[in-house]
Design the sequence.
């Protein structure tokens, strides 16, 4: 079957809710993928930040195979060893608390919204402050928190107020008697690789402490080592009360998680409060455990720091060469290059030249290679980018 045949099947049978490039990946290994026609590509945006270990990491494949032979699924009214072990691992690498498992980033944020509301219900507080430029997913409450893409889906759940990102005074002035939580991404991914400023994050934490608000960090995109630390909050020395995870936690299997600190667990996490049929089943939690192991064994946090610095400086060099590049920003391997013009065409040209990247917010090229990326691969990607930008 050729790509055009798959496209014909989609046109007949799959709802067209996505913008899709006329391109189909047949297999992947590490930072490389091959299309259906056998052409090789360097993937510098693997799986929309899901494939943080690259494609088909051997440890993840091994863990999935092993688990699939033993047991795929058990319901959450029984105990499951791998779920307990993965929760222990996540907590051990983040902050003292407990974990709720689900299947996606939106569900992790949905759980966060429900839990903070339950926490606030005693004092009649339910309102959540979120940030302009945020992205928290596509369920109705997550959309309300996101503050866009909701046209035609109203009415949205109430109780969300959006304020400018990185603007402490606006946040402080918007907090009212009904406010219970503040949610933010430390690096806004869909928002164009906008990095939270450390002073701002410290002030937000202090405000939350003072007003008894819960602080939620959405680490769906930044988590699991991408920024060179297990979680982006570790760059800031500021801990959240709740943290949402998904994407590279499973390196390709659908898993989401919400970590809730000890401050609130007793009051909200009672049986029957919230549920997910698949949440944390043996298959996905085995994969999650293998992701932690692979990062530890491969010293991939160190690689993310080193390769992130190498890639960033190469992108800075491109900025010096092309005046239409306005800024290079990001932490570790979560990088963006803002242009003074739309970038979609450059993404297409890069793909045709063998490099997969992304464009968000119309003008920001998003470059987020896997944590196993090498200098040679970065050099190769930069050569392609240079060639493509040179035509721009
Ligand atoms: N939160 C953030 C920061 C995200 O980047 C995304 C997805 O891009 C989500 C939540 C939603 O995740 P999902 O698509 O798995 O529901």
Sequence:
């Amino acid at each position: 079957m050729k790509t055009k045949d798959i496209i014909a099947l989609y046109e007949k049978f799959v709802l067209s809710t996505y913008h899709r490039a006329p391109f189909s990946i047949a297999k992947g290994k590490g930072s490389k993928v091959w299309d259906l026609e056998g052409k090789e590509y360097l993937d510098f945006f693997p799986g929309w930040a899901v494939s943080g270990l690259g494609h088909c990491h051997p440890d993840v494949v091994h863990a999935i195979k092993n688990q699939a032979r033993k047991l795929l699924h058990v319901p959450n009214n029984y105990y499951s060893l791998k779920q307990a072990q993965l929760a222990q691992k996540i907590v051990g690498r983040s902050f003292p608390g407990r974990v709720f498992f689900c299947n996606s980033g939106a569900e992790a944020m949905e759980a966060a919204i429900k839990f903070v509301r339950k926490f606030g219900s005693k004092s009649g507080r339910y309102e959540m402050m979120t940030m302009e430029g945020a992205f928290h997913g596509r369920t109705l409450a997550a959309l309300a928190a996101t503050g866009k893409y909701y046209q035609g889906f109203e009415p949205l759940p109430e109780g969300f107020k959006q304020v400018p990102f990185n603007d402490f005074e606006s946040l402080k002035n918007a907090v009212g008697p009904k406010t219970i939580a503040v949610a933010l991404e430390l690096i806004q991914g869909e928002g164009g690789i906008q990095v939270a400023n450390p002073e701002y994050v410290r002030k937000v934490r202090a405000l939350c402490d003072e007003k008894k608000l819960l602080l939620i960090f959405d680490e769906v995109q930044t988590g699991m080592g991408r920024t060179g630390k297990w979680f982006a909050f570790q760059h800031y020395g500021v801990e959240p009360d709740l943290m949402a995870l998904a994407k590279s936690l499973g390196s390709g299997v659908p898993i989401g998680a919400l970590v809730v600190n000890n401050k609130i667990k007793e009051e909200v996490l009672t049986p029957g409060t919230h549920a997910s049929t698949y949440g944390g089943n043996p298959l996905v939690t085995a994969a999650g455990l293998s992701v932690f192991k692979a990062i530890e064994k491969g010293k991939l946090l160190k690689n993310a720091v080193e390769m992130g610095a190498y890639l960033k400086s190469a992108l800075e060099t491109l900025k010096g060469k092309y005046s239409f590049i306005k800024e290079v920003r990001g932490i570790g391997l979560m990088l963006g290059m803002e242009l003074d013009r739309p970038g979609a065409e450059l993404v297409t040209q890069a793909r045709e030249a063998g490099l997969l990247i992304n464009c968000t917010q119309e003008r920001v090229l998003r470059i987020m290679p896997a944590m196993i990326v090498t200098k040679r691969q970065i050099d190769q990607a930069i050569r392609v980018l240079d060639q493509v930008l040179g035509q721009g």
User: Anything to note?
Assistant: The chain has a mean pLDDT of 97. The longest helix spans residues 300-321. Residues 104-106, 109, 135-137, 185, 189-190, 218, 220-221, 246 surround pyridoxal-5'-phosphate (CB under 6 Å). The chain has two domains: 59-297, 300-338.
